[in-house]
Amino acid sequence: MLGEVLTAIVTPFREDGSIDLEAFRALCGFLLDNGSDGIVVAGTTGEAPTLTDEERFTLFEAAVDSVGERGTVVAGTGTYSTAHSIHLTERAHELGVDGVLVVTPYYNKPPQRGIVAHVEAVGAATDRPVVFYDIPSRVVVDAEPETISRLAEIENVRAVKQAKPSIEAARHVVACGLDLYAGDDDLILPFLEVGGVGGICVHTHVVGPQVKELVSSYRAGDVERAHALDEELRPAIEILKVQTNPIAIKKALQLLGHEVGGLRLPLVEADEAETAEIRDCLERLGLLAAVA
Q1: Which letter does DSSP use for residue 4 in this model?
Q2: Whole-angstrom distance, CA of residue 198 vs CA of residue 98
Q3: Alpha helix (H) ranges present in the chain?
Q4: Which of 24, 73, 78, 260 places its Cα 20 to 30 Å from the Cα of 148?
Q5: Residues annotated as part of the active site
Q6: Which of 155, 171, 168, 229 has the alpha carbon at shortest distance from 5?
Q7: Which residues contact 16 (CB under 8 A, 6 or more apart)?
């Protein structure tokens, strides 16, 4: 519906901290040319917590215009405020996005029935597909199986981005009739094996073609090739573990010649040691040699 491989795109910034729309548009095109079926805008990787509403809307509009018919645009509209999430979703709908990503409300720790009520209210603001984002490592609250079952009853909740390694939970998502996306990049193959669609990824900024080949190989029945690619991509997974996302992936993009700028506080640039680790991973992937 939304694609097999989606990239949670970074937000490029100029030296003065403002959004670099030209670089953002260029990166949208690059990702679509290199394995991504679509992009997720203003997610955690896009530093959404530091974006104003107007900046989000500018990015949504630019993404829709840049992507066109070539792929899909999913807008990150979930916050810990239901009213605010509805506002973001309504505007994203007006701007023509293909779907919205709604995360479990963070910080205020709602009970499970509160999660359902939140997603139901946000989903009512659009007829576009809603992807529910289950990421307990960041939001603290773990969406329970019964909660996923109840979310599946909401008409336009069509998918779950699961960023936890539970295969049992992944199987439950599929059993509920929802599209399952890996929310951690190292979960793509395990989730494909239980009926998943693909992944909403970060490492596809630099290894998009390989990830798309992994998914395509598995779907074509070439499981051996899929496993080989999964192993080859280990250094890309290591990049993401160097430092909090998107610190490492932005540095990797910079090293590969992409003009994505720095980060907004409280995130900070990768230090010298971290940069060396990221460079080593890129060299083992053969990417820096290719650029040189």
Answers
A1: S
A2: 17
A3: 21-33, 53-67, 82-94, 112-123, 136-139, 145-151, 167-175, 188-192, 204-219, 223-232, 234-240, 247-255, 272-284, 287-291
A4: 73
A5: 133, 161
A6: 229
A7: none
Crossing angle of the two packed helices 272-284 and 247-255, in degrees rounded to 10: 60
Q: Which of 96, 103, 87 is nearest to 54 (CA)?
A: 87
- Please list the residues that pair with 72 across neighbouring strands: 38
| Pairing of β 198-201 and β 157-162 | unpaired
Contact 159, 1 (CB under 8 A): yes
d(CA 291, CA 243): 24
For residue 128, the one-letter residue type is R
d(CA 123, CA 130): 7
pLDDT in tens, 19-54: 999 999 999 999 999 999 999 999 999 999 999 999
CB 200 within 8 A of CB 161: yes
